[in-house]
Design brief:
mainly alpha, extended
């Protein structure tokens, strides 16, 4: 009768069921049934469902807010916010040769001071390692043990902080990777500039310079030679800049007189003047330096060869040899690449199994 009266009064049948079952042991189940009935009958005023707040990621080893730095921000840099290493500027946009020249010429004094002091500190470390009786492998183990000991103490004193201090994908690791990539790109730019081998005269100059340095490396200890190279790189270019007119005048005078006398000689005499000392060095020097002497002779001959004569010799003799080597090496490189990919020798993304 009560139900009939309630229906007659126009009450929602869902509310009636909820009121009757509110104090029974099956109240929870009845509430769920009532919600389903309300959905079925299309109640004009559904109960509002409170929105759950978005979960905030906790500072755990898996999600560390302190390390979620944006290294790919597309916001252009301003003078007050210079671009980060590994940021938006691509490696193709960086002129590493100009960067190195500006650093060695002290154009940016802060940057030059930083690299000069960093080089001296690195030299101190290298000198200490070379003078130490500890082997390289033992020293590496000691460094890892020191890191483990520090992490052990930190985990004991501040476990929550230690759990967040991981190296994988951290800001420091990303910066180190970016700095290493920039250093490798700078070294590659220097290689392409001075060791490309296209300019014959520059090839001869660089080859002779490297050979002289290799001979100095035998006469001087490695640590001493390293210090002299570092100091010379940061002092000689600046000294030449301030005395450029005087040095150029002296060198031009000496070189001009030597060149005038050298031009009077026949090509055969010129070749003899170079080949005879090289032949003596070839006999006196070790086997590796003999190969260097052969290379210097070839570079010298390439410098003094007439363009038309070398072009003819290159087309008839050298290019067929290069084509044969390329034809023989192409299948080999393809086989090596296929093997590396097939057996996953190099770290590559894993394929998802279907």
């Amino acid at each position: 009768m009560a139900d009939t009266a309630d229906h007659a009064l126009g009450k929602d049948p869902v509310e009636v069921v909820k009121n009757e079952l509110a104090d029974t042991p099956v109240a929870g189940a009845a509430k769920q049934v009532a919600t389903e009935m309300k959905t079925a009958f299309g109640s004009p005023q559904p109960e509002p469902v409170p929105e759950k707040p978005a979960p905030v990621p906790a500072a755990t080893p898996d999600v560390n807010p302190a390390k979620q730095l944006n290294f790919t921000s597309h916001v252009p840099a301003t003078p007050s916010t210079p671009p980060m290493v590994g940021g938006t500027a691509s490696s193709e946009d960086v002129d590493y040769v100009a960067f190195i020249n500006e650093t060695l010429m002290w154009t940016n004094k802060v940057r030059s001071t930083f690299y000069f002091v960093a080089g001296l500190l690195a030299w101190v470390v290298v000198r200490a390692v070379s003078k130490s009786d500890t082997t390289l492998f033992t020293g590496l183990c000691y460094v890892l043990l020191a890191s483990l000991f520090w992490n052990f103490l930190r985990a004991a004193m501040a476990p929550a902080f230690a759990a967040r201090c991981t190296w994988a994908h951290s800001a420091v690791t990303r910066f180190a990777v970016s700095a290493s990539a920039a250093t490798i790109n700078a070294a590659a730019a220097l290689h392409d500039r001075h060791l490309h081998g296209i300019d014959p005269l520059h090839t001869l100059e660089v080859g002779l310079g490297l050979w002289v340095l290799s001979l100095l490396g035998r006469a001087l200890p490695f640590v001493t030679l390293l210090l002299l190279l570092h100091l010379g790189a940061f002092t000689l270019p600046v000294a030449y800049k301030f005395n450029k007119a005087r040095v150029d005048s002296l060198v031009a005078d000496v070189y001009g007189k030597a060149q005038a006398q050298y031009e009077k000689l026949d090509r055969r005499v010129r070749a003899t003047a170079v080949l005879v000392p090289m032949a003596l060095l070839f006999v006196l020097l070790p086997a590796l330096d003999r190969l260097v002497a052969v290379f210097v002779c070839l570079a010298y001959g390439r410098v003094w060869a007439k363009p038309d004569e070398f072009a003819s010799f290159q087309k008839k003799r050298l290019e067929p040899v290069g084509a044969t080597l390329h034809k023989a090496m192409t299948p080999l490189t393809g086989t090596v690449t296929t093997t590396l990919n097939k057996y996953e020798i190099t770290p590559t993304p894993r394929k998802k199994k279907m």
